[in-house]
Amino acid sequence: MSETDFAEFGAKTQNDRTVMHVLYGLHTLAPFTLLSLSVVALIVNYVRRGEELDALYVLHHGYMIRTFWWAVLWLVVTAPLWALFVLPGAVAYTVIGFWYLYRYIRGWLRFNDNKPV
Fold first, then answer.
1. Which one of 21, 28, 41, 94 has the minimum C-beta count within 10 Å?
2. Tell me: the pLDDT tens digits for 74-86?
């Protein structure tokens, strides 16, 4: 069996951490921009996750991607509530928005502490 040389993977740089913080920041600000910033961050998440070797970073990219798609799913599922009356739709979207912010802020804090989500 061959041994894996972990030295060739290289250590994470400050730039890598900065990119993750920017991605979390974009996702966190996204509800205030009708999720347009989140779409940009999602594309970067997919690209960076594909070339990432560090397990912690892969977990956080996956967490951000899953949170985005679950939010989109729940926004689509609750969209018919707007047709009934404005209040049920507004309540559903507000709850989804708070859940979305909670997930990203929680993930950001965990990443800042170098912990998996």
1. 94
2. 999 999 998 888 8
